[in-house]
């Protein structure tokens, strides 16, 4: 049978205090011990719990968005749109998660899925987040941040980076994906004609031959032609899109005649340019 020995606290405390051969860990503990440390550690633990709870809440919304978009197909599109509309976005960051997920899905997914994402973006364009309580009943839009506005802001930033041809970060692959994004959203009526007309004007301005251009600028011309080709190949050609192109085919034909004469751009790029003309005239 086990035996138990009961010690009186006072005698036990005196016994410990009389010990001279304390272990190093025990000595270190008593040297550094204070009630302030205990209180601070308790506060840190409580704060960590709050941070973790907030993270789980944000992560749950993001995970829900990713799960819904991964299931997206032609048959369940209305259901996915309805499910996203039912999500209550608590922060601007949560709404931005939806923007980023849609952008990345258009860039990386197949040609069959991209139009579905564009349709989804169009249908939830009116989704908004309230940044503050509206104290002005006459201004119904005060404090609202709309999904469409956030989306177009990100697309604009993406586009600006794609035409920064002199940047060390520029790459044809990233530029092509941006053109796919822009073309897909234009097909889905998310990007309007006036925005697209501005983009076409930007390309024409870069591609246009000028005698005063320094030789190094023709590297930009080649990059612009490649991106324009990606954009034209992505956009559905119809009466509306033909209107935003305007005289682009004739413009390119004139430019390629000049470039074939002076050979300031490569044969490969001249061929790409001719192919754009062919696509525009179908």
End-to-end distance:
99 Å
Reported for the largest beta sheet, the result is: 2 strands, antiparallel
Q: Name the overall outline.
A: extended
Question: Quick check: average pLDDT?
Answer: 84
Structural class: mainly alpha
Cα gyration radius (Å): 31 Å
Number of helices: 13
What is the strand arrangement across the widest sheet?
A: 1-2
How many strands in all?
A: 2
Give the % helix.
55-70%
Roughly what fraction of the amino acids lie in strands? under 5%
Helix and strand pattern: HHHHHHEEHHHHHHH
Extract low-pLDDT stretches: 46-58
Descriptive notes:
By secondary structure, the chain is mostly helical. Among the domains are: 56-130 and 142-154, no CATH class; 192-280, no CATH class. It contains 13 helices and 2 strands. Strands 1-2 form a two-stranded antiparallel sheet. Helix 3 (35-70) packs across helix 5 (92-108), helix 6 packs across helix 8 and helix 7 packs antiparallel against helix 8 (172-187). The longest helix has 36 residues, at 35-70. It is extended.
């Amino acid at each position: 049978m086990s035996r138990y020995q009961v010690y009186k606290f006072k005698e036990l405390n005196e016994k410990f205090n009389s010990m001279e051969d304390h272990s190093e860990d025990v000595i270190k503990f008593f040297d550094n011990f204070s009630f302030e440390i205990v209180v601070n550690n308790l506060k840190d633990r409580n704060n960590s719990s709050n941070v973790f709870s907030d993270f789980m809440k944000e992560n749950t919304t993001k995970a829900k968005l990713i799960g819904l978009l991964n299931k997206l197909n032609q048959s369940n599109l209305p259901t996915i749109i309805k499910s996203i509309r039912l999500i209550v976005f608590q922060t601007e960051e949560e709404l931005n998660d939806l923007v980023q997920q849609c952008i990345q899905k258009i860039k990386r997914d197949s040609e069959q899925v991209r139009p579905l994402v564009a349709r989804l973006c169009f249908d939830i364009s009116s989704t908004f987040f309230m940044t503050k309580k509206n104290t002005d009943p006459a201004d119904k839009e005060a404090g609202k941040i709309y999904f469409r506005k956030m989306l177009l802001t990100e697309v604009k930033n993406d586009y600006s980076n794609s035409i920064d041809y002199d940047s060390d970060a520029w790459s044809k692959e990233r530029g092509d994906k941006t053109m796919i994004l822009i073309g897909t959203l234009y097909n889905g009526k998310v990007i309007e004609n006036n925005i697209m007309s501005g983009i076409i004007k930007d390309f024409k301005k870069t591609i246009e031959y000028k005698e005063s251009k320094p030789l190094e600028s023709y590297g930009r011309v080649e990059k612009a032609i490649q991106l324009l080709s990606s954009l034209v190949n992505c956009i559905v050609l119809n009466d509306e899109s033909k209107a935003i192109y305007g005289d682009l085919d004739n413009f390119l034909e004139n430019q390629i005649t000049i470039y074939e004469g002076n050979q300031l751009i490569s044969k490969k790029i001249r061929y790409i340019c001719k192919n754009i003309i062919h696509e525009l005239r179908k």
